[in-house]
Amino acid sequence: MEKIIQARPHVDDSHLPHHLHPVIKQIYATRQVQSATELDNSAATLHDFKLFKDIDKAVVLLQQALAAQSRVLIVGDFDADGATSTATLMQGLAMFGLKNLDYLVPDRFSLGYGLSPALAEQIVTMQPELVITVDNGISCIDGIAIVKQAGIKVLVTDHHLQGEALPDADAIVNPNRHDCQFPSKSIAGVGVAFYLLIALRSHLREQGYFQHNPMPNLAELLDIVALGTVADVVALDANNRTLVHQGLARIRSGKTRPGISALIEVANRNAARLSASDFGFSLAPRLNAAGRLDDMSLGIACLLSSDINQARRIAGELDSLNHERREIEQGMQTEAQAVLDRLAFKTESVPDAICLYQADWHQGVIGILAGRLKEKYHRPTIIFAAGDNGEIKGSCRSIEGLHMRDLLERVNTLYPHLISKFGGHAMAAGLSINEQCFTEFKTVFEQMVTDTLTEEHKQSILLTDGELPNECFSMEFANLLKNAGPWGQQFPEPVFEHVFEVIQQRIVGEKHLKLVLKHQSGRLVDGIAFGVDVRAWPDTEVRYVKAAYQLDINEFRGKFSLQLIIRELQKAT
User: Which of 186, 299, 403, 554 has minimal CB crowding within 10 Å?
Assistant: First the structure.
């Protein structure tokens, strides 16, 4: 589906500091920045931990565990947010002097997400005295009940949306529980874990604990927090931007852990120039590959490694898994496209929703496939793969205008026999259903999407920041933009639009279009469009193109040059 390239309307930016570059000032204003305070990324601007419901109960549990040197088990999740959350608490609690620490991540394929009843039975045999969930727990009512019945205390830290009931835990720290006043509802699981450590340090300081014990420098954990925040694709509100900014600053100045250094190396990134998009597109996929294809413990081991050589070995394994994941995904994408083609499904007549199931698709990759199809066709998408005991597992991705978790809840209320379990956010969710219910579920899902979406929602619009003034078409301005971030989800990196003359065009790496373009100022600039339709490009008949692009700086053998990352390319006259 071809995107509509549309410039954002000009908005009043007089409330923002006058010293800002006028183009950057307008970029901030169109992203609803209300004051200069939101642009201050110093640690002092972070929201107060005391705003979290149950944070006081949580720190008492941790203080008691510390005093008794209790056996503490951290129960994580198999994605990058779960891995970074687990690593944050493993290292953070050890910094306070807790010695009997261990972690457990459920196997994606046999146990599924979170503290399930099956995982709970396993936990009971391990006999911990305190269980801490990270990036899960808010919906694990049955599993937590089993752990509690065994006399084990449970502290839930999570950021997923609360269902009708809360689990019977000793403390539940989650900004999205209905009675929590913490303002940043989009904080990632790793951010919640980090706040728990900040609260613990404050509590222990008041108790005089650090008169005889070293006080941890929790800023050392911000590189992990930044990686997990971007990897989980949460909205980068002011609080999350501060966490990411602080983590990036540490990495760029060389103050990062061996595991992240090794991931940066294997991804061929430059640590001194690392950006938030490098987290999302280069580091996170390698970390996620462990949980998708193998065991996320490998990713956690990379983050926790204190030896650079060991970290490099693990990062190499993660890189290999990521290559394997790409191959699997490519095969699944080809198969999915074949299914859509058989249904006479063309971009000119896209249905309101996409819902596909194939028994031999890989559970670990269906989320990526759902995301790819959602991006291509701009429609809510659910992809199912075979699970266990007659169930199939689905991964959902949505578009603006349709809250996926709310829709699943509506299905569950009206058709209680259809869904075994579900959870997630507005834009991404997961569910399990009985295989025999797939056809009925697909019909219900598609109808509900049709009833919800307007024609406007179904348009794929790429919002740009308009045409860039000639004097800004430079390396200097590209550097200004880079430092004006961090950019990410719901605080998008600036995209500009322009009609260029095409000087050269060729395919590189089998599916990327390399261009030399001529700007109206007469300047020649390189452009790269990733993942183009090789049936349409290169087109030697095309002399002019309308491009929506990001201004970037390419580094090659120590030399820097201006480069355009082309987000959308359309023929122009």
Answer: 554
Residues 66-97 as b/e (b if ≥16 CB within 10 A, e otherwise) read beeebbbbbbbbbbbbbbbbbbbbbbbbebbe
Q: Which residue has the tokens 């800004």?
A: 472
* Element housing 341 (H / E): helix 308-342
What is the spatial distance between Cα 262 and Cα 303, in angstroms, rounded to a whole number? 9
pLDDT in tens, 328-340: 989 988 998 888 7
C-alpha separations of 422 from 369, 389, 439 in Å: 19, 17, 18
Neighbours of 273 (CB within 10 A): 13
Report the Cα–Cα distance between both ends of the chain, in Å, rounded. Answer: 21
| C-alpha neighbours within 13 Å on the C-beta side of residue 555 | 9
List, in sequence order, every residue forming a beta bridge with 563; answer none if it has no partner: 526, 552
**For residue 288, what are the CA distances in angstroms to 5, 296, 306, 324?**
32, 8, 20, 12
pLDDT tens figures, 513-563: 999 999 988 899 999 999 888 888 999 889 999 999 999 999 888 889 999
Give the tens place of pLDDT for each residue, 392-423.
999 999 999 999 999 999 999 999 999 998 88
Q: Distance between CA 106 and CA 82 in Å, rounded?
A: 11
Determine the residue type at 27: I
For the beta carbon of residue 125, count every other beta carbon within 10 angstroms: 7
Q: What percent of the chain has pLDDT over 70?
A: 98
**Token pair in block for residue 462:** 């790429």
Give the three-state DSSP class for 465.
Answer: coil
Written as six digits, the tokens of 257 are: 């852990």
Full-model pTM: 0.92
d(Cα 513, Cα 385) in Å, to the nearest integer? Answer: 33
CA–CA separation, 409 and 424 (whole Å): 10
